[in-house]
Design brief:
Layout: H1 3-32, E1 37-42, E2 49-50, E3 56-57, H2 59-71, E4 75-80, H3 84-91, E5 96-99, E6 108-122, E7 138-142, H4 149-153, E8 158-162, H5 165-173, E9 179-183, H6 184-191, E10 202-213, H7 219-234, H8 237-242
Parallel strand pairs: 1-4, 1-5, 7-8, 7-9
Antiparallel strand pairs: 2-3, 5-10, 6-9, 6-10
Helix pairs in contact: 2-7
InterPro entries: TAT_signal
Protein name: Transporter substrate-binding domain-containing protein
Signal peptide: 1-31
């Protein structure tokens, strides 16, 4: 082989070797600069809200940070009113959402991060053992929620929506509601700021805090998020975040 040809061959081999190293470097750079996925959650404490200086706070804000770290997927949390979350997912305004209600349309629940209790309570003296105990009563629920299909379908129970659990507690104490139904952690947070006596909280069912995803998200990202969800669930991270005393 002539010297010039040999040099050209060596140069070509070096170039090929350099090109072979580019994909890993390019992938790392892409991961570092990837556009964060937008994740919506309800803007009700202790789940999510704004601190005294406008900064996002709450259990799901911190959980999102851990979800991003464990999965390697950058995530931007977006607290929104309860009814907007599933619509933002279907309308292109979000990539992910965390919901207890499993009726979100247009997305698939890929996994869940923890469980919650759905409970009912009333003013002092209220007792609950079965659904029939609610017949003839006005039961307040968070607007757009759907925790109990059986209750929703029962015509003998009067339903009334409220916009926040704080409002629901006030309506109960004012006599506008007989019973409040909702997520136990949210109710305890609202009751911690309210005066007056109420009944014990009676468990109605359990719910999962599920992660829904836009179907267009790639399979590798979904798998990474699922693995992170399992770790969060196994470590009971959501429970620990919800029960921190600084929530109030």
């Amino acid at each position: 082989m002539p010297v010039v040809t040999r040099r050209r061959a060596l140069a070509s081999m070096a170039a090929i070797a350099a090109l072979g190293a580019l994909p890993a470097t390019s992938s790392a750079a892409t991961a570092a600069t990837r556009t964060p996925l937008r994740l919506t959650m309800v803007n009700l404490m202790p789940w999510a809200g704004n601190g005294p200086h406008g900064q996002p706070i709450g259990a799901l804000i911190e959980l999102c940070a851990q979800l991003a770290t464990l999965s390697g997927v950058p995530i931007t949390p977006m607290p929104v009113p309860y009814g907007r979350a599933p619509h933002m997912l279907t309308g292109g305004g979000a990539d992910l959402t965390l919901l207890i209600d499993t009726s979100a349309k247009g997305g698939a629940a890929i996994d869940y991060v923890g469980t919650v209790d759905i409970v009912v309570f009333g003013r002092s003296g209220f007792r609950f053992q079965r659904m029939e105990d609610l017949f003839g009563k006005t039961v307040g629920t968070l607007r757009h929620s759907g925790y109990s299909p059986e209750l929703e379908a029962e015509a003998r129970i009067h339903k009334h929506a409220f916009d926040s659990y704080d409002q629901g507690v006030r309506m109960l104490q004012a006599g506008r509601l007989d019973v409040v139904l909702g997520v136990g952690d949210s109710i305890e947070y609202a009751l911690g700021k309210a005066a007056g006596q109420v009944s014990p909280r009676y468990p109605l069912m359990h719910g999962r805090v599920a992660l829904y995803a836009n179907p267009q998200i790639d399979a590798a990202t979904i798998a990474a998020l699922q693995a992170a969800c399992r770790q969060l669930r196994q470590k009971r991270v959501m429970d620990e975040l919800l029960h921190r005393p600084q929530r109030r």
